[in-house]
């Protein structure tokens, strides 16, 4: 009874302990910090990166200028200024965009709010800064949280209903600012636009942190954006908030007199700390805590509340589990209003004023103005940079502190010059505030990232990390001009790098960047050599690659070996492991050391012996296959030349490693015994022509058919010379092969049956990929690989060209042919065979005689990358040991703006970006008439569809073939919606939308026209 009771008590105790652990884990998750992996900005004064942003803050740049007065989006000289003499912080450009990069048609880009365009570009730059790839974002659950407030562009479109089209709503409403980013990048997490006026972006940050803690997403893209496109919105703002008459934000100054509107966009990439650690990501900072509240009922909707602000700051500290004096920098809301400044500072003094360490209070609005929905994120990113640089920039326009602000007895200071942060042990904390003019308030506590030994190395890792041989730098873009521009940026960065830093740059470019379709891949022995190649790189814009490149592996036979060929592979861990596995098998079956033979120098090499060479070649091919697979290059089909077919069968899963070496060892011994004393010669004639030169009694036969005009003869040496002379007399190129063996000759016939009997017990398994045999010239199955098959493989003609031809014709998706062997001996023949088959795959080798692995394998890897292969770069290069700031993507922008005249269609020419405003083409005779000529109607409708497709793509109508499937033009469904609307307006025909969308996936312009004619509808 007592024992039973004790057992029950133990079980209850264990359950209680498990519940306590669960609750603790849950509590920890709900207060877990969020790591800031990356950030990016677009700020006034032409600032487009974090370096420029910090430089402007450090140097005290005043980015405020006169506001523009027009609504055409143009900036710079001649753009016009606000007629009321108002000021603002303006971006250098808002009317241009790289629509092609994001797969957006010109017609849609014209209707997209510049705020959407800015978010797309700046988000991409933040992702780059974070070192995340699209695959990572898509594999994880990635959310999007964007603060947005203004609607100038939408208001400009709807001012006249004739300017509204199918792109107006998705181009202008707030929700799509976030939703489009999720759509374009194919992200599956929460996606929301946040509008709490001036606190929108920091409110978005708060929601993102909560979503990360709750497990709603693993990664979050968070930001805010604001543009000023119409004088009307400034007039509206002026009616509710005071604009500074002198056009400067004088936060905390005695002469503070109001706000200054500004544009901007900022984005950060957040994740849970555990997620960052798992991916070996080094954050810029950590969000320790956030809090939000509302002012409640004050003496006016836009009036701040001292009580609410004080409570907000304390709640954020509690969420961060931090003490007020842990904070050594505060980025205030700092609007520069006579009412708001003293109230905000009073709350800061109440919460943060006590302590010994000085605490500067800054206001980014003094540099750039009030960026409204982007203000909070601008302040957050500034605070991150302050922690990184350990310095608080000066507040501009601060001449005399507002007399209502009392600094006496506090640790607070308002810097008027760059001020170092307090020197203290451990991470430093900063705080950021953002208040909406409707009373929605946010406060955030962030922590500097922990310092590591690498931080003291100023970006230069140890020389040990740099000792890797050839540098390899992958570069990719969406277009050739962008790829060239990006290569030039890398050239500039590499020109100032030593080899250790170049190693880090290459590693970061390979493992921390998404790999886009237009590519180049550069190799070099030094940073200087790599920089020179990047500076002079030529980029070929290739056709769109297949979704996934597929490769035919071709395994070469004897003749490709060379002394020390294994040395290049023992330096690669994956290849070395495979060679060690082969070492065990070879020692058991052949009785000698594979490693010794692969590393032997020219003086000691025994690779001239067939029984040694064939085994070593096979081992090298096994090792190369393992290495290529680890790098992401796997065979989709295999062909093996002569003895290479044994390796091919094993790679395809038909033979085990042990079975393969059983065959190869016995095969090599027999060849060494029976084939000596012969000769071989390559003849540049078709096999049939060579056969006509042979004397059946001479003992000379055809050893291999390698290509359309590449045939190898074999047999007794004197007889081979006779045939070679006859071929030479017919002006054919002949080349005696450097062997004294007669492979695949009648000399080997006596051993065929013996060989077949020796292999009778070896049975093949079903292949995992197709195997094309050089014995049959066709694809083979497991039941064909009997002892007799391998005897024929030893004695009969090698039907290499027929086997490769069969593979290429059977699978049109084979885009690459990779020769796997110690040295490329088949590339020329492969090119000829592919051409004869009407194919042009990329031809790539593996090792090259006398070259290091870095010099040969990396060059081949570069070729495969450029050809579109998805390389597993983490297996090729070690991840970067320090945070490396790589060049951002060079946007290839064009002007996209609303039509100059409502009802007319603006066409932007791709060459110079000029706008050509044209009247819509006259309506074709599209209406249905019982007496109309149906073929004429069909043709008219077809031309209508072609013209609309051409307009959407901004291409000449001559390029729009009426029989090409519409999906190949890359049109979205909205284009068809717009087409439907125009059709109904111009012809009166009502066509159900679903009918048009159905044909969009499979039909051509003519098919779409036929559907319209056949629609079972009536005139309205």
Automatic annotation (TrEMBL):
Keyword set includes Ribosomal protein: no
Record-linked SUPFAM superfamilies: ACP-like (SSF47336), FabD/lysophospholipase-like (SSF52151), Probable ACP-binding domain of malonyl-CoA ACP transacylase (SSF55048), Thiolase-like (SSF53901)
Domain of life: Bacteria
Residue ranges of every copy of the Ketosynthase family 3 (KS3) domain listed in the record: 31-448
One Pfam family matching this protein: KAsynt_C_assoc
UniProt keyword list: Multifunctional enzyme, Phosphopantetheine, Phosphoprotein, Transferase
Record region (Disordered): 911-933
Database matches in InterPro entries: Ac_transferase_dom_sf (IPR001227), ACP-like_sf (IPR036736), Acyl_transferase_dom (IPR014043), Acyl_Trfase/lysoPLipase (IPR016035), Ketoacyl_synth_AS (IPR018201), Ketoacyl_synth_C (IPR014031), Ketoacyl_synth_N (IPR014030), Malonyl_transacylase_ACP-bd (IPR016036)
Coiled coil: none
Record-annotated Carrier domain positions: 939-1016
Listed name of the protein: Polyketide synthase
Organism: Nocardia rhizosphaerihabitans
Lineage of origin: Bacteria, Bacillati, Actinomycetota, Actinomycetes, Mycobacteriales
